[in-house]
Amino acid sequence: ExxxxxxxxxxxxxxRKNVKFRRSPRPWRTHSESIHGLLGCTNRNCLEHVWTxxxxxxxxYWNRDTLATSNMLHIVESMISGQGRPARFMRx
Length: 92
Prior knowledge:
alpha+beta, 3-stranded antiparallel beta sheet, two-stranded antiparallel sheet, 2 helices, 23% helix
């Protein structure tokens, strides 16, 4: 589905790709690699729900599959209720 893995389901803002890096699990490689499938939302409204006084949170992390599934569920609920497909998931 169009844009289901590029918008945050909590705040509807765009998510960033390649948000975390790790050392390569292969011992002969010395470079770091991005964690495939991990996305991050930096919208302030979205962060208020995960922020705790004990730790400062700068990004809400999403697994790409979980993100797409949550957005597809929102599309289906909207269509069942008779409102049609949400505009943010439609091509221009």
